[in-house]
Amino acid sequence: MGQTIRQIAAALGVRAEGDLDLMVLRAAEPAQAGPDDLALAMDQKYAGGLAQGKARAAVLWEDADWQGLGLQAAIFVGRPRLAMSGITRSFDAGPELAPGVHPLAVVDSSAHIGAGAAIGPFVVIGRDVRIGTRARIASHASIAEGAVIGEDALIHAGVRICHHVTIGDRLIAQPGAIIGSDGFSFVTPEKSGVEVVRSTLGERDEIRAQSWIRIHSVGGVEIGDDVEIGANATIDRGTIRATRIGRGTKLDNLVHVGHNVQVGQDCLLCGQVGIAGSSRIGDRVVLGGQCGVSDNIIVGNDVIAGGASKIFTNVPAGRVILGSPAVRMETQIEINKALRRLPRLMQTVAELRKIVTGSVQKDGADQEGT
Amino acid sequence: MGQTIRQIAAALGVRAEGDLDLMVLRAAEPAQAGPDDLALAMDQKYAGGLAQGKARAAVLWEDADWQGLGLQAAIFVGRPRLAMSGITRSFDAGPELAPGVHPLAVVDSSAHIGAGAAIGPFVVIGRDVRIGTRARIASHASIAEGAVIGEDALIHAGVRICHHVTIGDRLIAQPGAIIGSDGFSFVTPEKSGVEVVRSTLGERDEIRAQSWIRIHSVGGVEIGDDVEIGANATIDRGTIRATRIGRGTKLDNLVHVGHNVQVGQDCLLCGQVGIAGSSRIGDRVVLGGQCGVSDNIIVGNDVIAGGASKIFTNVPAGRVILGSPAVRMETQIEINKALRRLPRLMQTVAELRKIVTGSVQKDGADQEGT
Amino acid sequence: MGQTIRQIAAALGVRAEGDLDLMVLRAAEPAQAGPDDLALAMDQKYAGGLAQGKARAAVLWEDADWQGLGLQAAIFVGRPRLAMSGITRSFDAGPELAPGVHPLAVVDSSAHIGAGAAIGPFVVIGRDVRIGTRARIASHASIAEGAVIGEDALIHAGVRICHHVTIGDRLIAQPGAIIGSDGFSFVTPEKSGVEVVRSTLGERDEIRAQSWIRIHSVGGVEIGDDVEIGANATIDRGTIRATRIGRGTKLDNLVHVGHNVQVGQDCLLCGQVGIAGSSRIGDRVVLGGQCGVSDNIIVGNDVIAGGASKIFTNVPAGRVILGSPAVRMETQIEINKALRRLPRLMQTVAELRKIVTGSVQKDGADQEGT
Hints:
Chains A, B, C: Its EC number is 2.3.1.191. Chains A, B, C: It catalyses: a UDP-3-O-[(3R)-3-hydroxyacyl]-alpha-D-glucosamine + a (3R)-hydroxyacyl-[ACP] = a UDP-2-N,3-O-bis[(3R)-3-hydroxyacyl]-alpha-D-glucosamine + holo-[ACP] + H(+). Chains A, B, C: Belongs to the transferase hexapeptide repeat family. LpxD subfamily. Chains A, B, C: It is an enzyme of class 2 (transferase). Three copies of one chain form a homotrimer. By secondary structure, the first copy, chain A, is α/β, with parallel strands linked by helices. In chain A, 17% of the residues lie in helices and 26% in strands. The first copy, chain A, has a ten-stranded parallel beta sheet, with no helix packed on it. Chain A has a nine-stranded parallel beta sheet with strand order 10-13-16-19-24-27-30-33-36, with no helix packed on it. In chain A, strands 8-11-14-17-20-25 form a six-stranded parallel beta sheet, with no helix packed on it. Residues 359-370 of chain A have low confidence and may be disordered. The interface between A and C is large, with 93 and 82 residues.
């Protein structure tokens, strides 16, 4: 794992100074760095940390005085987070997976596994599965009949890729991710309470006792290139057409994508986001942690939703939203400010009314339980 | 998988016309349908799609002119979603599981597996487990000692059914579902901050440093017939009595059901719903995606909660609720409307006060951080 | 599993009366208890249940008249929930795991497993793993290279402990828990929409189409003693430094802890809580079910957050909070009351304005969609 400063700077395509042959073994925070570490100090505020630590080499902000900081070598970067990508990649050995197929894996004879694959113990690969070259599949993963996966896949332990799912190149699936479970789709013989309430916004004349009948999911899941799926995330297959995740989109842990959902390209769905059935998410959409999207909703391109936003209505392209129900972020920030003053506002209005009408009226009779 | 129009119409119990011996291989959306597909066009709005596609047969709305639509055969249905159930079922081959017990499954000799079962590779079945006839158990599932499962179970890959869980007939467990994990139940030696705050609604005189002591879960989980559990959903066992899920209830992906919870019959718990310990949910309750139910709450029969509703207090039977905290849906819709106008309302009140009292007072001093 | 009343009282360190040699086989609720059960009736309100049931022995409140209740023996406790801990522990046999290493486990020859361990079928243990004495590791778990786990670990089925994770003594990991998945950390070549919006609170001049570049996670996860991780919970590894969970902290099912997060000691993170990257949670913090913590937030010691609270800003030590965005619990309760009266308030203000200004103005023009 050792690398020289020269190698790292070259990989990042940036400038380095000092002893370019100095070898470093890992990246570290400035204050914790030892003499064999590369300290990551891409902002002036880390200068103090560098002084505490023992690093001989560091990644620094662009006009830093590396000699004044007591270093023997330094790499200079402009956009720190971007540099982090290259630096962490160069130090990431990835999970250890011996090349070849483990003797305790069960691989169907009709499956086609590309050259250079590493398949761990207790992996199951079904009939007619096709997996591209250099796939790394960790222990306990299962890939069911007819699934197709592109090149350079990294499939961590316990991932489930269900039957006939198709996935592009460079998939990363974190442990426990499930791709292609059945959709959650049920119907009652007669109109259900949910159908009634959706049309009346809450009114119900009559309540019927009915059981749910299953709508099966005979569609698949289609995933583009360069997609990452988080730990224990779940993606349901479509009813008739496929559920789709576009190229370059990343899903965090415990994200739920319902049946028939279409997610565009280059989206980020952060931790615990849930998207209900048949909704369509555009390209480059960012949904913060714990956001929810109701079913059959359209979220336009480039929408950004703050954490825990709940989206019940269509969102035009480019909008930045927040809250539950989600509204424009600026509006929500104003609402939040106003909310904190709301109890006081009620007092003020009561006082005004007293002055204006000359009488006090009780204003609590309409309190409402759940 | 090929079926004739006659067979499908008979299975649905509905009327068909045209060439009833026409064979179709799969269901498809009208515009994407090929000549061997059955186009699903149960509403007039799909007529255009039919014209684009190449289907020779379709499922149509009841008074459709099938010949005018250029079809050779047609099936007519009244309630489209209900028809979807029968149609998708007839085309769902289900997961491929070879009959018999895979040589790399570990089945305890005391376990009783019903006739016709299919048990996949790397399955573990413990002591005294009883599983009904025709069970299909996919790879990597584990069923621990003393668990009892009825007939026709479909248990997908990686499902965990923990010790002494009992389940009725026709269970469907999606991949990664966990039934019978330990409850989350802890106690401090002296009153905890949570106990204090619950009684005072926020006030605390004194803060003690205490560690949490575990309350073990020696109750089980009891699940009725016709229950489906979603991918990576979790159901905790009870402390003393069993956690219960009633007949016909369906849980979506990533749903969490806490210890001692009682869920009635024919409920739908949508994606990422969470129910805290010891709450009781009635029959035919529908909780939309990401709903939460606090602990020790009673939710009555036939309650419907919109997505992301958070239920902190008991809910009477039949009520339709929304919001956080959840209130009647109509009330919440009014509140939501009012909220968007709240910043403007504050201005209006400030202006009124100015007019009425003849003086301007500052109204920002009571702003509150978190 | 049988125990005498004397044994149980001694284990609890409390007083018992009557036939102390009476043997009980399990704990039960009073009304359901049979003659071999120990009824748990720690409050006067259970007296009626005792009369319905058939228990000969019970755990009672401190000044209960056990003979008047028709019992042959009784144990008396002061703090019922605390007693529950000892009683349930004494009746919890735990999962059945045969001692030794199952022949179908794959244990790397360099791994060190402490004495008395039980390792189930289809377990995978990687290179240089170290596990303390008396570990119990259920089927299908995987522990990757370099991981270190202390004594008396109980690791349930299908748990994933990723490479180089370090964990203290007495770990309990419920089924499907994942410790050490990669962090969700991505960067765009130029400033992303999220970065712009964070600085402007919603304004964007220009929208760029960019793809996400991965920041790898080369940090680990460090977990203290006496930690419990819930079913299907996920803990991401750090980017450079480790993600940390302090001694005595308990995580419930489906909790998500992002990369670089630091959680203190003796915290409770209830079901489906999510903590975004790089946030710091103090000691003895309690986050109710479905709470969310935004990234880079500091939550002080002894903070208690009610269910579904969403924390967007730092929280001072000792504060009790509620709501989304979370504010002091008292404030939120007032806000909630006011919200229910908000539609009426708007009417009142409209009426006042009419009186004061002598004219009616329309106040709906500023309604805002999402």
